[in-house]
Amino acid sequence: MSDLIDSRGNLSGADGEWLHLLVGDWQVISDLAFADMVLWLPTTDDDFVAIAQCRPSTAATVHHDDIVGRMAPRGFVATLREASQGQEIVRVGEARWTGAYAIREEAIPVVRAGRTIAVIARETHLGASRTPSRLEINYVESADELCAMIARGEFPAPNAATGPRRGAPRVGDGLVRLNSEGEVLYASPNALSAFNRLGVSDEIVGRSLAEVITPLIEDSAPVDESMPLVLMGRAAWRSDVESRGVSLSLRALPVTEHGTRMAAVLLVRDVSELRRRERELMTKDATIREIHHRVKNNLQTVAALLRLQARRSTSPEVREALDGAMRRVATIATVHEALSQTIDEVVDFDDVFGRALRLAADVAAVDSPRVTFVREGTFGRVPASDATSLAVILTELVTNAVEHGLRATGGTVTVRSQREGRTLSVQVIDDGVGVDPASMDGLGTQIVTTLVDTVLDGSISWASRSGGGTEVQLVTRLGEITD
Predict the structure, then answer these.
(1) Residue range 293-305: average pLDDT?
(2) How many Cα atoms within 13 Å fall on the side-chain side of residue 26?
(3) DSSP secondary structure string, 409-435?
(4) Torsions phi, psi of 264, nearest 5?
(5) pLDDT, tens digit, 9 for 90 and up, residues 95-115
(6) Which pLDDT tens digit goes with each residue over 453-466?
(7) Does residue 300 sit in helix, strand or coil?
(8) What is the pTM of this model?
(9) For the range 250-258, what are the long-range contacts, defined as Cβ-Cβ under 8 Å and sequence gap of 24 or more?
(10) pLDDT at 164 over 50
(11) N or C: which end of the chain has fewer CB within 10 A?
């Protein structure tokens, strides 16, 4: 849509944003009108091009194919021009026959700041002609009121609650028409059923909806500040009402005429089951975070016990083995600590590895105080299923570089990471004495090889550098991250 506006039209940025707001909220009008909506943009060569279209969910569609990008039919251009120039809704006198069914057409000028910036074609499928019900009459009358607001430049409301928000009411969920005082003029059967589940047992037509709903709200229940304005139809906003375990989502569309509020359309949806599931998910997320927190605490306790035991040992071999076990347990605890602070099973691995690298630096400082650590690149977000193994692998590689390559000479360990989508490439480079074949069959190397092969399903290789030192190359494809 933006590309068509820029290439074919002559609108300002504010005008284009107005059209985006309109398209973001015109599904309501399409459903109320039982009609297709096509947005026609005046072109620089005095023609019209379709830049957006909307099909009703309440009736048969007129356009089964996508017409965005097409030019207006020759026979309809005059009607579009008349609506654009006169800034009034123009209805075609006779229905257009397609060969299979008839179509009733009208053109609605889209006015902003006193200027017509586009025209909407409202096209109604007349294939099933019958006497309209009371529900359909109220739907169409509501659509007529909103279309008139478009022609006066009063719709869409810039601060309206639009977009695919969870639980947003739709036309078919329930409709209530209010007068300027917030009294109910009409309520659809679905709306009445929703209010009955909330606890409304009396007739609501002719009564103030706010006065009917307010006594049902429990004293201890939280109340949205915007709820009275929505129930009175005074604000183009959304609010939730909860009572007796029932949750209703309400959305108000004030109907104005030259700035004066004349009426309102209220959409109602029972979202009790949706809210219940959301609360269950929130409880589940909190439980998972608490589990990660407790696992982290337990692992840190184990690491502390291993450290204490290592200090009390008189055998260098035992002390070295216990220090290695303590380091691995502490690395896993670091991952669980990160998971305990997020609502999803994904961690910022740059932060996790930063903590693990500090742990390796503390170990290196004992025997090789001259070792410097350098990080290049980024890891990005990593799923929990891969984070623990990746953290252990990299900690082992860095520790091995210090213990076997730099213990005697000191030097620099560089960790270089590159992320492209799900593919992660990591290089661990040191400038020490190079690969020692005797160190390639140790426990650390076995742990790294096993995790790379069985968990990360990646590849790893060791090589000597021409200038001295060792370079380890790790390549893996991480799991999917679902937002």
Answers:
(1) 81
(2) 26
(3) T-EEEEEEEEEETTEEEEEEEE-SS--
(4) -160, 150
(5) 888 777 889 999 999 999 999
(6) 888 888 998 888 87
(7) helix
(8) 0.63
(9) 250/169, 251/161, 251/168, 251/169, 253/28, 253/146, 253/160, 254/157, 255/145, 255/146, 255/149, 256/149, 256/154, 257/148, 257/149, 257/152, 257/154, 258/152, 258/154
(10) no
(11) C
- The CA-CA-CA angle for residues 449, 451, 454, to 5°, reads 100
- Sign for the CA dihedral angle at 383, 387, 389, 393 comes to positive
Element (H, E) at 49: strand 48-54
**Of residues 28 and 351, which shows the higher confidence score?**
28
H or E stretch at 252: strand 246-257
Report the alpha-carbon distance of residue 133 to residue 234 in Å, rounded: 28
- Cα distance between residue 255 and residue 185, in whole Å: 14
Residues 53, 37: Cα–Cα separation, whole Å: 6
Q: Provide the H-helix boundaries in 263-419.
A: 272-312, 316-339, 349-367, 384-400
The length of the chain in residues reads 483
Structure tokens that stand for 254 in this block? 């004030």
- The pair of three-digit structure tokens given for residue 353, joined into one six-digit string: 């590895």
CA-wise closest residue to 209 among 190, 189, 192: 192
